[in-house]
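Much of what follows relies on a compact textual record of a protein's fold. The record below shows the convention in full:
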Amino acid sequence: MKRVLLRLICVVVVMVATTHIATISARGVKFQGYGNLGAVYCPSLKGAGPTADVSVGAQFGDHFYAGFETGFHTLIYPVEFLGEELTVYDSYIPLAVNIKRQFGHRMVRPFFNISLGGFIGAIDLEEYNGFFCQAGAGVEINRISVGLGYSGLVKSGTESSLYLKVGFRFGGYSY
């Protein structure tokens, strides 16, 4: 799974690096951001939870976005402790660089997305900080986006999960 994630990250970085320079100079740079609501699901813990995040940055030409992402994510799952079932709320605040590579010039634009950075633990994770990454793909229709992907946290071990996000774009170009 880690090899697949690393390969996906490398493919996304190469795609972003090959963004057309002529397109950037033709359209220029414009302020843009994203707000997302979603859910995360961790199969190994059999838990799920809500996510909310925002990314603020710039759109470079028609196909490349880079910004800073933060938000609040929670993973809720049951654990058994001394014969009782307890509910754990692993919550954290991601602080990451977010890059996105879009395709096409129409109202419907597929994209690849990657966020790399760290996280600050909150609630049941308050003593933990670590590495945070997300990689996914989706589609943006006009200013509304839907994305699916992989989310990973590295603290003492690695917790891998899947995410689904629905969001909106503010600023940037109209397509």
Q: What stands out?
A: Residues 130 and 157 are 10 Å apart (CA to CA). The two ends are 36 Å apart (CA to CA). The longest strand covers residues 84-102. Residues 2-17 form the longest helix (16 residues).
